[in-house]
């Protein structure tokens, strides 16, 4: 619905129920009436004179947008828990408040992270491809063997809401040790599991599964690079469900091709989605079906 002189602009079409409070007051809301992101030029035009802006992570909210909005803008809200697309510095300079949506997706992202971890470590997508393209010949004992969670060490980079929810879900799989790296110890999140706070390098050295759940900040930008991959086990599984910018994708590609790590599962990339000819999308899964000692089938007598 378009009003003259809108007070608030939303950068995507939303169900009216999304804004019960705004709808019940006499607040004029103009929506970008599409499921596609608002083009930058339109955004710059639409924000002029508004008091509130509701955006998604597809909109970069920087000095240019804030200047286009002008001094009337009092609050920016983003429909995301991550707010790396919003310049906090520019908001602070102008005294504009920022709203976000923590916890809305914690359970969903934790489930997705576990699904991605299992699919990657147990090579599910590769196996489905092989079944469809005729690559599944006769049964071979070591073919498509992956890596198991039982007795493993899982390292979480960023033990926030999602990281803790991932750990809670992985615990029943028989994980032996949980490690985490963060800006400091998080006993509120770690005690129940329990998980040990360690430097990131130690986490990389000891983990069979490295799961990235941290916020994207200037400090975490590109933190998963060759220096980290080179410390990891060559049987390690790397999972990222935080933000693509946390990973140096060229370094990840090299680590996968060179067998420095076994496989990676990425829910987030830079850009999103990756162009379909991106080298990472050409990789099946790196590393041979090397069995870890814990996976060896020790011979037992049946009769
Ligand atoms: N894949 C998706 O669809 C999806 C959905 C929601 C959120 N996310 C991402 O997940 C992230 C985490 O969400 P959350 O709700 O758990 O947030 P959170 O704020 O509870 O957790 C973020 C954690 O990252 C840690 N962190 C920040 N800087 C760090 C650093 N330099 N080194 C190590 N750790 C650091 C924080 O201390 C905190 O523990 C979000 O920031 C967002 O980017 C992704």
SSE blueprint and pairings:
Elements: E1 8-10, H1 20-24, E2 29-31, H2 40-46, E3 52-55, H3 63-69, E4 75-78, H4 88-94, E5 97-99, H5 106-121, H6 124-133, E6 153-157, H7 161-170, E7 177-181, H8 187-190, E8 196-197, H9 200-206, E9 209-212, H10 226-229, E10 237-240, H11 249-257, E11 263-266, H12 279-282
Parallel strand pairs: 1-2, 1-3, 3-4, 4-5, 6-7, 6-9, 7-8, 9-10, 10-11
Helix pairs in contact: 2-3, 5-7
The chain binds nicotinamide-adenine-dinucleotide.
Protein architecture, described:
Keywords: Oxidoreductase. It holds the Pfam family 2-Hacid_dh_C. InterPro entries: D-isomer_2-hydroxyacid_DH, D-isomer_DH_CS, D-isomer_DH_NAD-bd, NAD(P)-bd_dom_sf. The chain is 30% helix and 14% strand. It has helices spanning 20-24, 40-46, 63-69, 88-94, 106-121, 124-133, 161-170, 187-190, 200-206, 226-229, 249-257, 279-282, and strands spanning 8-10, 29-31, 52-55, 75-78, 97-99, 153-157, 177-181, 196-197, 209-212, 237-240, 263-266. The protein has a six-stranded parallel β-sheet with strand order 8-7-6-9-10-11, sandwiched between helices. Strand 6, helix 7 (161-170) and strand 7 (177-181) form a beta-alpha-beta unit. Residues 286-298 have low confidence and may be disordered. It binds nicotinamide-adenine-dinucleotide. Nicotinamide-adenine-dinucleotide (NAD) is lined by residues 81-82, 102, 105-106, 109, 157-163, 181-183, 186, 213-217, 219-220, 241-243, 267-268.
